[in-house]
UniProtKB/TrEMBL annotation:
It comes from Mojavia pulchra JT2-VF2. This is Metal-dependent hydrolase. The chain crosses the membrane at residues 178-205. Keywords: Hydrolase, Membrane, Transmembrane, Transmembrane helix. The keyword Transmembrane helix applies. GO terms for molecular function: hydrolase activity. It comes from the Bacteria.
Length: 261
């Protein structure tokens, strides 16, 4: 994809929002709050992995895409981290969560594993974020959410779709090892789903809503019965197991055009 636009978004999160900004849904509010907590460090991890390979990329077009990828992901982190201020002012504590995240991604994966494996894990993370982006835009998930947060997540989703092929191509430029791709995909899914749900649990716990009946009803609806996101994740992962898989095989341009950002 040649059309990777780096947009300079400057969202203002200085005002306070309702605690449950997602259509009054406690579950969805904290699911996406949890996503917001993970974005800055995980995207820092993706950027660092891309930077390690960029100087070895011979194809000028791919090199330029990798540079645009780095700029887009950098912007995502900047905007998401602004919202931490709102979460902190509402009294949420998440330093321990961030420490665990950093320990896994930086101290264990980045420091102890090979560059190729880290890049393969990054490809797996991008595969999952592409699915999340597709889901958010397809069903207009944030239609009734707080407008600033709607803008944040939809802008992020559009850019995830725009750069969905980049890390895959960067990895393939170095190695087309199928087993490596599978291992990276597997580790990425385990880690992202684990940290997304851990963040959710930590935030719900602080609201004393961990055992709330409505929250659990929504959680089951989201993952299993209504939105069926767990099945979407599984089928999406199976798709990536095909030997001739490439992220460009699924058409997303219509979704990018649907949202004017
Ligand atoms: Fe991103
Ligand atoms: Fe991304």
């Amino acid at each position: 994809m040649d059309n990777i636009k780096v947009r300079q978004l400057n969202l203002d999160f200085s005002q306070s929002f309702e605690r449950y900004w997602f259509k009054q849904s406690i579950f969805k509010t904290h699911l996406f709050n949890s996503f917001t907590l993970g974005v800055p460090d995980i995207e820092k991890y993706l950027i660092r992995n891309a930077k390690k390979r960029i100087k070895f990329i011979g194809n000028p077009q791919l090199k330029q895409q990798a540079q645009a990828f780095i700029l887009q992901e950098g912007q995502h982190s900047v905007q998401h981290i602004k919202f931490w201020h709102n979460l902190k002012s509402l009294g949420y504590k998440f330093d321990t969560y961030l420490n665990w995240l950093q320990m896994i991604f930086f101290n264990i994966l980045e420091r102890r594993m090979s560059t190729n494996l880290n890049l393969a894990i990054s490809v797996g993370i991008e595969h999952l974020t592409t699915l999340m982006a597709e889901f958010v835009l397809e069903v207009d998930l944030f239609a009734e959410a707080e407008p600033q947060l709607k803008q944040l997540f939809e802008w992020h989703a559009v850019e995830e779709l725009e750069h969905k092929t980049v890390l895959f191509d960067v990895l393939q430029d170095k190695t087309s090892n199928y087993l490596l791709r599978l291992v990276g995909m597997f580790i990425a899914h385990i880690l992202i789903l684990f940290f997304l749900n851990l963040g959710l649990a930590i935030l719900l716990y602080q609201d004393k809503k961990l055992l709330d009946r409505k929250v659990w009803q929504e959680l089951i609806e989201f993952w299993i019965t209504k939105d069926k996101f767990l099945y979407k994740v599984l089928f999406n992962a199976i798709d990536a197991l095909k030997k001739d898989f490439h992220p460009s095989q699924k058409e997303h341009l219509w979704l990018i055009q649907k949202v004017a950002v």
